[in-house]
Write a structure and sequence with these properties.
This protein is mainly β. 7% of the residues lie in helices and 40% in strands. A hairpin with a 4-residue loop joins strand 13 (211-216) and strand 14. It is globular. The model is unreliable at 1-73 (pLDDT under 50).
Length: 413
C-alpha cells in the first residue's frame, strides 16, 4: 500500500491531464482520486497534533503563501477493527460516546454489501456489535447523528431508511424519500450527494438531478425543497448554524469551468452568492465543492492542488471572499473531504500521510501525519481526538476485497 512512487506518478499524471481539453471523465478522475492502490494517503488543537505552523494569514489584508514546514509524526494509535468485515462505502458517525460504523460494500463492484454495524467506545477501547438494521444492505448512503438516534437513509439505488437508537440497541423504519439519496450506480464518489444536519432536519441534495428534500425525524416526514439551479457535477451542502449553503463545481469540464459556485437557502429560496476562482494557473486543479467547511465565522475552501492553488474564505454576512494562507498539502488531486474540529477544520491529502488543521483565530494551518486515506465519510472528531475506520484498498482493482485501517490520534502526554 505504501507505494510512494506510484502515488507520485498518479498525481503527476492527473495534474497533466487537467491542463488539457481532454481532461479525464469523472469516473476516471475519481478512480485516480480514490485509488488506494495509487494514492496514499490549533492553543488546544496544536497540543493535539504537535507540529509546526505553516503560515499565518492576515485577514483580510494581503494573503501569505504557505511556507515550508517541519512536520513531526504525532501519536497515531491503531485500534482493533472490531467485529465487522473490512469494507468501503460505509458510514462512520460519532454519537458523543461511541463511533458507529454501519453498512458498506466488500469490494468496489458492490457484489457484496452489508447491513450490519458495530459501535466503538474510545473510553474503554472496546467494540460491540449492534442490532442488524431492518433495511436491505447498502453502500454510499447518508448517515447523521441527531443527538438521539443515527439516521441512515438512501444509498445506491435506495430511497428508504431507518434510525438506530444506541440507548436501546434498536431500529425504527423511516418514511421513504421522494428523491434519490445515493450516487448513481457505478459512480460512488464524494460530491455526488450533498447532505447537512441542521439540528432538527436532514437536508439532502441529489447533485446529478438537482433534487433536494429535508427530513424531519420527529414527524417522520419529508419536504421537497426548490432546486438550486446549479448545473454542476460535484456538490456539497454545509450548515453554518443559521442557513444551509450549497457549493458546486464542474470537475468533468475543468479547465473550461473554473469557479466554485455558492448558494444560500433562506426563507425557502436559494440566494446566489459570489463565486470564487481557486486556480493560479491553467494547469492547477480548481477547488472542489467538498473541500469546504465552516470555521469560526466563515467558510474555508481550497484548491484540489493544495499549496499550488488558492485558499479563500467566504464571510456570509459580507457576501465576500478573501484570500487566506494556502492549504499546505502538496500539489496532488487526491484529497478527502475535511471534517470540523470544533471551530477548526481538519483536511486530508491523499498523496502521502498528509493532514493539516486550519485555526480561524489566527488564520494558520498546521501540518501533521496520519495513516491511510481519511475522509469525512470514515473519520470523526470526538472533541479530543480523531478516530478513523476507513478503507485503504482496493479502488481501481475491480473485485478485490477491501482492507481497513482503524486508528485514533490522541493528544500527546
Amino acid at each position: 500500500m505504501r507505494l510512494d512512487d506510484l502515488a507520485r506518478h498518479a498525481a503527476q499524471d492527473l495534474v497533466k491531464a487537467a491542463a488539457t481539453a481532454n481532461r479525464p471523465g469523472i469516473q476516471e478522475l475519481e478512480r485516480v482520486r480514490r485509488g488506494r492502490a495509487f494514492i496514499l494517503g490549533v492553543s488546544s488543537l496544536m497540543a493535539l497534533v504537535g507540529m509546526t505552523i505553516v503560515a499565518v494569514s492576515v485577514w483580510p489584508e494581503s494573503p501569505p503563501v504557505a511556507s515550508e514546514s517541519t512536520t513531526r509524526t504525532p501519536q497515531v494509535m491503531p485500534i482493533a477493527i472490531g467485529p465487522l468485515e473490512p469494507r468501503g462505502g460505509h458510514s462512520v458517525i460519532w454519537t458523543g460516546e461511541e463511533v458507529i460504523v454501519w453498512g458498506g460494500e466488500g469490494n468496489e463492484t458492490g457484489s457484496v454489501q452489508f447491513g450490519n454495524g458495530a459501535a466503538y467506545n474510545p473510553a474503554s477501547d472496546s467494540w460491540r456489535a449492534i442490532e442488524d438494521a431492518p433495511i436491505t444492505p447498502r453502500r454510499y448512503h447518508v448517515a447523521a447523528w441527531t443527538g438521539v438516534e443515527m439516521l441512515v437513509v438512501g444509498g445506491v439505488d435506495e430511497r428508504d431508511g431507518a434510525k438506530y437508537f444506541p440507548a436501546t440497541d434498536s431500529w425504527e423504519l423511516v418514511s421513504e424519500s421522494p428523491i434519490p439519496i445515493g450516487p448513481p450506480a457505478g459512480l460512488p464518489i464524494e460530491g455526488a450527494i450533498g447532505s447537512a444536519w441542521t439540528g432538527d432536519q436532514l437536508v439532502v441534495w441529489h447533485v446529478a438531478t438537482d433534487q433536494l428534500a429535508a427530513y424531519d425525524p420527529e414527524s417522520d416526514q419529508w419536504t421537497l425543497l426548490p432546486p438550486t439551479g446549479l448545473k454542476v457535477d460535484n456538490g456539497a451542502l454545509r450548515w453554518n448554524g443559521v442557513d444551509v449553503y450549497a457549493f458546486g463545481d464542474h470537475m468533468s469540464s475543468y479547465p473550461q469551468d473554473r469557479e466554485l459556485l455558492v448558494l444560500r437557502l433562506r426563507d425557502g429560496q436559494w440566494q446566489q452568492l459570489p463565486s470564487a476562482e481557486f486556480s493560479t494557473t491553467e494547469d492547477i486543479v480548481a477547488a472542489g465543492a467538498t473541500l469546504t467547511q465552516w470555521a469560526g465565522d466563515r467558510f474555508i475552501s481550497w484548491s484540489m492542488s493544495g499549496q499550488d492553488g488558492l485558499t479563500r474564505g467566504l464571510v456570509p454576512d459580507d457576501d465576500a471572499w478573501a484570500e487566506l494562507a494556502r492549504n499546505p498539502h502538496p500539489p496532488c488531486d487526491g484529497q478527502g473531504e475535511p471534517i470540523q474540529a470544533d471551530d477548526a477544520i481538519i483536511s486530508f491529502g491523499w498523496c502521502g500521510s498528509n493532514a493539516a488543521i486550519y485555526e480561524p483565530s489566527n488564520g494558520s494551518w498546521t501540518t501533521f501525519e496520519v495513516t491511510g486515506s481519511p475522509t469525512a465519510r470514515y473519520t470523526v472528531w470526538t472533541g479530543v481526538e480523531i478516530i478513523n475506520w476507513g478503507d485503504t484498498c482496493c479502488y481501481g482493482t475491480g473485485g478485490q476485497a477491501f482492507t481497513v485501517d482503524a486508528w485514533r490520534k490522541e493528544p500527546p502526554g
